[in-house]
């Protein structure tokens, strides 16, 4: 694994113009705080690895970027930073369209530092205990998710209500064609970290 991966260089290069400064800023800040961090591409977006564990990841889409920590649920700093943000996936910093949308540099550094400390302490991502509200994922949808690694990652880390909305929507389809169309649409939205009713959510 490389400290600065050429794959991530080209990922940033291919991103939209607005995204480049955001991705570069995140990348520099992570390396500044965690000189041992290494870079790799996983599930088609850039990850920063520390001591062999996923520390954080970033991604860019057509109209926004995202950034998040793997151990976010255990992080006090992230809870403080994100309390006013609509959370819809592991990337709970919301949709980033400019560097100013990120937490301030001291906050960001504090968050990265905390993620490093938690990793050093051996904290791992808790597997959510199956809650009563968790619905069974239909086999055809599970297969489709497994073929789209990015959507699968987001889906597995999302809240039970996030999953339930998608599963109900797919199960409620009256015909095979509608069901397939809904699954295809669901995978696209999930991969982008969007909730089923994202169009109606508070922007």
What does this structure look like?
- A hairpin with a 2-residue loop joins β2 (45-50) and β3.
- With 203 residues, the protein is α+β, with helices and mostly antiparallel strands.
- The protein starts with 5 loop residues before the first helix and ends in a 12-residue tail after the last helix.
- A four-stranded antiparallel sheet has the order 1-2-3-4.
- α3 runs antiparallel to α4, α6 (149-157) packs across α8 and α7 runs antiparallel to α8.
- It is 45% helix and 12% strand.
- The model has no long low-confidence stretch (mean pLDDT 87).
- It has helices at 6-14, 19-33, 76-82, 105-120, 139-146, 149-157, 160-171, 176-191, and strands spanning 38-42, 45-50, 53-60, 65-69.
What integer is the average pLDDT? 87
The number of distinct helices, counting runs of at least 4 residues, comes to: 8
Strand content: 5-15%
| Quaternary structure annotation | single chain
Report the sheet with the most strands, covering strand number, pairing sense and barrel closure: 4 strands, antiparallel
Helix-strand makeup class: alpha+beta
Strand order within the widest sheet?
A: 1-2-3-4
Overall geometry: globular
How do the SSEs run, as a string of H and E? HHEEEEHHHHHH
Quick one: how many beta strands? 4
Low-confidence stretches: none
State the share of residues found in helices, binned by percent.
Answer: 40-55%
Gyration radius, to the nearest Å? 17 Å
Distance between the termini: 38 Å
């Amino acid at each position: 694994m490389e400290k600065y991966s050429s794959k991530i260089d080209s990922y940033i290069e291919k991103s939209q113009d607005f995204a480049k400064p955001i991705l570069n800023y995140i990348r520099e800040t992570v390396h500044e705080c965690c000189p041992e961090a290494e870079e790799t591409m996983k599930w088609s977006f850039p990850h920063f690895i520390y001591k062999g564990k996923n520390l954080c990841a970033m991604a860019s889409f057509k109209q926004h970027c995202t950034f998040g920590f793997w151990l976010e649920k255990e992080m006090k700093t992230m809870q403080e930073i994100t309390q006013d943000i609509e959370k819809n996936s592991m990337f709970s910093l919301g949709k980033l369209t400019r560097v100013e949308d990120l937490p301030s540099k001291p906050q960001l550094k504090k968050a990265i530092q905390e993620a490093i400390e938690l990793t050093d302490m051996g904290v791992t991502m808790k597997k959510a205990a199956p809650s009563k509200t968790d619905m069974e994922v239909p086999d055809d949808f599970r297969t489709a998710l497994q073929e789209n690694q990015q959507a699968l990652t987001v889906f597995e880390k999302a809240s039970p209500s996030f999953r339930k909305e998608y599963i109900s929507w797919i199960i409620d389809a009256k015909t095979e064609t509608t069901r397939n169309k809904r699954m295809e649409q669901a995978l696209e939205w999930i991969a982008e970290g969007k909730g089923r009713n994202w169009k109606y959510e508070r922007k």
